[in-house]
Write a structure and sequence with these properties.
Blueprint: H1 13-21, H2 24-38, H3 45-58, H4 69-86, H5 90-102, H6 106-110, H7 118-125, H8 130-143, H9 147-158, H10 177-196, H11 210-218, H12 228-263
Helix pairs in contact: 2-3, 3-5, 4-5, 7-9, 10-12
């Protein structure tokens, strides 16, 4: 999982302090986890659960309402230091800690999940209601859903469970205007392509290539099945987005040309 890993740097004073306070067993666990996550083979759920237990012990979760704001900040720092030591991003440590809290007993809770991947588990953890989570879990195991299918079922039945910006791959912030233009172009193109690939009556087909047309023919839901309100809003809002996408694409081309001339 490339997006979970970070480059290791020289240990800071805080990292050295954390290392000095670790018990021998915790040090050995960190060393083992570092090896497991550095492997080319995806880490098993047993490894993630072990990480969660370690994170729970080193950085227990406190609530600001309990008057533990200072300790909570301390726990956040420990999560960041633990992430650096193991070679993961901090959000993976938080996910593992929640995993160990929600699925506390390995034999009864984690072992039945052996056919699911860690990404499946992350989607399940986002479902706060235990009954709903267990239901999704059972259906996912029985029908052998992909991660995408599980996410779609959760969002279809109970809505978005994570607030925007939480979970998933961390956002890569642009370093230059050209990078910002490239990212905008990619996102706008994806949205516009999604709409253009939907099946529609032959008189309203905007898809130009054969490939998208074949994909659209296999789809179940098409433009003609949309409610009038949704179809109207999509059409009205996509037209300005098409113009904006054209501006972004042209601007990016101009930036590339200027950079090329400067380097030449």
């Amino acid at each position: 999982m490339p997006s979970s890993h970070v480059a290791r740097t020289a240990p800071s004073k805080r990292a050295a302090k954390l290392r000095d306070t670790l018990k021998t067993e915790q040090r050995l666990t960190i060393k083992w986890l570092r090896q497991e996550f550095a492997s080319d083979v995806p880490a098993s759920l047993a490894v993630w659960h072990k990480l969660g237990l370690l994170a729970r012990d080193l950085a227990p979760k406190y609530s600001p309402q309990d008057g533990q704001q200072r300790v909570q900040t301390y726990g956040k720092r420990r999560v960041q230091l633990l992430a650096k030591r193991i070679g993961l991003l901090p959000n993976r440590i938080y996910e593992a800690r929640r995993f160990a809290a929600v699925y506390s007993d390995f034999d009864s809770d984690v072992a039945p999940l052996k056919d699911l991947s860690w990404l499946h588990v992350v989607e399940l953890l986002a479902v706060k209601d235990e009954k709903q989570r267990r239901k999704f879990q059972a259906e996912c195991l029985k029908a052998k859903w992909t991660t995408g299918k599980l996410q779609l079922e959760i969002r279809t039945r109970v809505g978005r469970q994570r607030s925007r910006g939480q979970g998933g791959r961390p956002l890569r912030h642009p370093a230059t205007e050209l990078e910002a233009l490239i990212q905008l172009d990619e996102m706008l193109t994806k949205l516009i392509h999604w709409y253009d690939s939907l099946p529609r009556p032959s008189s309203d087909v905007r898809v130009s290539s054969q490939k998208p047309r074949k994909r659209a023919a296999r789809a179940v839901f098409g433009v003609d099945q949309m409610s009038d309100e949704l179809r109207r809003e999509l059409v009205e809002n996509l037209e300005p987005l098409r113009r904006f996408q054209g501006f972004v694409s042209g601007k990016a081309a101009g930036e590339r040309e200027r950079l090329f001339q400067r380097k030449g």
